[in-house]
Amino acid sequence: MIVIEHCAVSTVDGAGTEHADGHVAVEGDRIVAVGPGPYEGAPDATRVDGTGCLATPGLVNTHHHLYQSATRGYAQQEILFGWLKELYPVWARIDAGTVHAAATAGLAKLALSGCTTSTDHHYVFPRDGGDVLAAEIEAAAAVGLRFHPCRGSMDLSVKDGGLPPDSVVEDTDAALAATKDAIDRFHDPSPGAMVRIAVAPCSPFSVTPRLMREAADLARSEGVRLHTHLAETVEEEAYCREVHGCTPVDYAESLGWLGDDVWLAHAVHLDPGAIAKLGATGTGVAHCPSSNGRLGAGIAPVRDLLDARVPVGLGVDGAASQEAGQLGPELRQALYLARLRGGPAALTARESLALGTIGGARCLGRADELGSLEAGKLADVALWRLDGIGHAGIDDPVAALVFGPPAPLRLLLVGGRVVVQDGALSTVDEAMAAAALARAARKLREAR
Ligand SMILES: [Zn+2]
């Protein structure tokens, strides 16, 4: 047992329960008690003095491309399409070694910023690149994060009217077969699972309608979730109108891609009808505020999505369009963007924390197990230090976490296992991960 006590607690449960001085008790991989004051009993438990700290649910990252950690700093002034065209040929050279190094570093960075569950959207599978999906799953196990890799795919290249070159797309049937194989090999539907697979064709301008439809059929027959990019940029909307004669959300609807088993990355450019459709169908959104800023894509209508009861989570997005790769600071970034769009009442600090926790758990279909601190849920807990110069004196700990600078972690638990302690990883060596990432990035750059 691990007992965290003498800390502020923000449970992010349905009632918004908070304790100015409380405890979280963990046994095995589950939370057994959350409440005010110290935890009575369990004299043999490992006790963590959380004085000066805030306990929250571990953050849930709903969109990423971990391999991109090895391709940071490219195409610095480009919009999405220009950025992709510069990067596709670089990505064509990745292999399992690249992905292992990039995923280890990317997941380590996420853990150090309070993330306990991450998804990944991997859609580049070079023919002689080895088993890249296995490589990132191995990396997640080493870092110790709960992991939802999405088996992505692209089958629409330039010669067929798409954006990517032939070198990075797959044959449609081969992509579907490999996706089925990924589910068979790695998907764990059991309670408390550390690895779950989702099915994730990449985007409207890189995937054929047939692959979208058949991927949805496959996911639903296998009981796994669906993920894709949608409505990220004005150029994507123009593409959909020209090629399909409708908006991206109407296109997704025509393919069977709206539903409570689907979550969409970005959803920036939405008309009121599209927002209503997402709300009515329970389709989730992975909001990626820093990536949208880096690419100048626009500001997602998060307030309107929440008012329409759309499940909204936060995503860091791939590190090639968001070099920082940390999830904690996205709480503040989401709040800032919502307020730039809708004024200072558009999103509260607590709503922002809810996006990063229970909102993300809803996107991944795991709100029954993750995203809030409640007895019976999985013991994924972040304990943030708020007594340093960055936060000291801010009376409201949730405001300190969201408005303040990135908070150091006193402790990060994933399923009750210590992954970060006193600001350092307990699982992998950070300096070795950085060195491996630098080698992988240099190799890709020099092969140009
Ligand atoms: Zn993305």
Automatic annotation (TrEMBL):
Keyword Hydrolase applies: yes
The scientific name of the source species is Dactylosporangium maewongense
What is the protein's name according to its record? Answer: 8-oxoguanine deaminase
Keyword annotations for this protein, in alphabetical order, are: Hydrolase
Q: Tell me where the transmembrane regions lie.
A: none
Amidohydrolase-related domain mapped to chain residues: 55-418
Q: Which InterPro entries match?
A: Amidohydro-rel, Metal-dep_hydrolase_composite, Metal_Hydrolase, MTA/SAH_deaminase
**One Pfam family of this chain:** Amidohydro_1
Q: Which NCBIfam families match?
A: PRK08203.1
